[in-house]
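User: I've been trying to design a sequence by hand for this structure and keep getting stuck. Would you show me what you'd pick, starting by listing the structure so we're on the same page?

Assistant: Good idea, let's start from the same input. This is the structure you sent:
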């Protein structure tokens, strides 16, 4: 009988307890990560991609836009301000004064704000 017991025990796969514990910890950490991510709890800690530009950064972006898009034109910034959640940057392009509105994140520009439709009407 001792020979049968030795054969059975030699056929069993033995996994050390420390590996089972580490595997369990990894699975729990991955599960916690996805739970926290799905609740949005990490959004306050992450750097936002929708960060606002400063007024100086918006002016520089406008100048860069026109210098690269229309390099033969002369552009001068006359004034700039914040108007209803947009940056208003008034420029003179080849002698003509043009108001340019830029979103505060710097992703969009428009010359006619009447094209924008407010949601709170």
């Amino acid at each position: 009988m001792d020979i049968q017991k030795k054969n059975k025990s030699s056929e069993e796969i033995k996994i050390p307890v420390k590996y089972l514990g580490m595997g369990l910890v990894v699975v729990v950490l991955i599960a916690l990560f996805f739970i926290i991510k799905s609740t949005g709890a990490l959004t306050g800690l992450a750097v936002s991609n929708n960060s606002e530009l400063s007024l100086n950064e918006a002016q520089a972006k406008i100048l860069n836009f026109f210098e690269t898009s229309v390099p033969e034109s002369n552009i001068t910034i006359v004034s700039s301000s914040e108007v209803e959640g947009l940056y208003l940057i008034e420029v003179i392009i080849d002698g003509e004064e043009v108001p340019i509105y830029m979103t505060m994140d710097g992703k969009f520009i428009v010359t006619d704000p009447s094209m924008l439709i407010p949601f709170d009407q």
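That's my pick for every position. To get oriented when you compare it with your attempt: The chain has a mean pLDDT of 80. The chain has two domains: 2-39, 55-115.
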